[in-house]
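> example.struct
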């Protein structure tokens, strides 16, 4: 039952990733009608601008088609390229509400009923058509995870686009029916005032750009690192096929086994978790190198990207990251970057600390090598033997898959 619950939660989260914004109590944005005209006679820039107004929780899939039309006219259209790369992560969820049907139907009666009610009550819209346009083909946790892996690949394509076009400058036009709150905030911040000689107050308002967001190198770097950060999580989450672990979780007899008995059971299995062929663990070092370089760039240009300091608000008015791209504690950041750069450089020496955070030893670590050549099966990392408390008494691989190249994993103290 725990496994069914876990798989149901994952499957549901895929849908919620698309519909969270659209299921709020305030449905005014979706109820307001706005006509967007598209035809093959329009120029590429006009098609991109029209598609931009379709970027919303309910119509992003229509925007994707508009950007396709724009790119057919001009493959180098920067706005269409940007949005196309950005939206791709959402396009992988086409048909997901129908695809997860077999998985959802493995839940209890309430979960099955809730799923049926959700499908029935979901507002008729292009989004509903998009979510329901697919076969009923996801019936396991592992298959649901593969959808997340496709999402992660789309994230990487967007990250690489931002990296390749790091000097790109864009002005995005916000859809007023979707970003009304953001526009109102910008309008409120569009006025400045000063006291003049006669004691009166001179107020000057410039609202010309309140419905726009500009992007330059600083915004693209911040976006790229946010995307990379999300990729770190999903790269680890989707690296291994969890089918066997899903089956293990159903084995209620494990609750009554001693640690040595449980280990013996695990060893009888043909696999614990096999490495997925399309895993992206090898991208993690690249993301780390990119992050290090980006932070150093931001630090170098703090006077431009964070001119008023970390407490400044609206200091980059009109830009996507309007409050600045700021470094909070440069000293601590330098220390963290030094550790990161050392780890990314190859084999490095890491301290071994006790429960009081005092160094008691050190060990050499090859994190990059481990990520670029991860274990083919997590079964290979099982210990040779454990005691009755579950502590390892002998390792089958003292390098732990090459992570500790000197084969001295036993130096690391085990928690009581």
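> example.seq
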């Amino acid at each position: 039952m725990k496994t069914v619950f876990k798989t149901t939660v994952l499957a549901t989260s895929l849908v919620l990733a698309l519909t969270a914004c659209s299921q709020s109590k305030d449905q005014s944005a979706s109820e307001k009608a706005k006509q967007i005209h598209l035809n093959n006679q329009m120029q590429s820039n006009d098609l991109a601008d029209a598609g931009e107004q379709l970027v919303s929780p309910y119509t992003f899939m229509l925007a994707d088609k508009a950007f396709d039309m724009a790119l057919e006219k001009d493959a180098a259209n920067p706005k269409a390229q940007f949005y196309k790369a950005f939206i791709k992560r959402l396009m992988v969820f086409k048909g997901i509400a129908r695809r997860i049907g077999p998985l959802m139907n493995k839940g209890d009666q309430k979960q099955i009923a809730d799923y049926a009610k959700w499908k029935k009550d979901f507002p008729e819209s292009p989004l509903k058509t998009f979510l329901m346009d697919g076969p009923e083909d996801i019936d396991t946790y592992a298959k649901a995870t593969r959808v997340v892996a496709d999402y992660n690949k789309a994230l990487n394509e967007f990250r690489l686009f931002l990296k390749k076009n790091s000097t790109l400058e864009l002005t995005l036009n916000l859809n007023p029916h979707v970003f009304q709150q953001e526009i109102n905030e910008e309008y409120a911040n569009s006025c400045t005032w000063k006291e003049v000689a006669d004691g009166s107050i001179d107020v000057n308002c410039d609202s010309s750009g309140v419905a726009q967001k500009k992007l330059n190198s600083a915004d693209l770097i911040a976006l790229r690192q946010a995307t990379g950060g999300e990729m770190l999580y999903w790269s680890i989450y989707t690296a291994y096929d969890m089918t066997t672990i899903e089956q293990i979780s159903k084995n209620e007899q494990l609750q009554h086994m001693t640690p040595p008995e449980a280990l013996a059971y695990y060893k009888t299995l043909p696999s614990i978790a096999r490495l997925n062929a399309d895993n992206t663990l090898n991208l993690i070092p690249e993301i780390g190198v990119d992050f290090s370089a980006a932070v150093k760039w931001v630090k170098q240009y703090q006077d431009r990207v964070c001119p008023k300091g970390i407490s400044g608000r609206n200091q980059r008015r009109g830009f996507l990251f309007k409050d600045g791209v700021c470094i909070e504690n440069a000293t601590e950041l330098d220390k963290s970057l030094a550790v990161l750069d050392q780890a990314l450089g190859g084999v490095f020496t890491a301290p071994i600390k006790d429960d009081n955070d005092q160094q008691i030893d050190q060990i050499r670590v090859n994190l990059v090598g481990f990520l670029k050549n991860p274990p083919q099966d997590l079964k290979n990392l099982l210990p040779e033997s454990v005691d009755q408390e579950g502590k390892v008494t002998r390792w089958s691989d003292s390098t732990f898959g090459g992570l500790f190249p000197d084969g001295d994993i036993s130096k690391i103290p085990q928690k009581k």
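> remarks
The CA atoms of residues 287 and 362 lie 26 Å apart.
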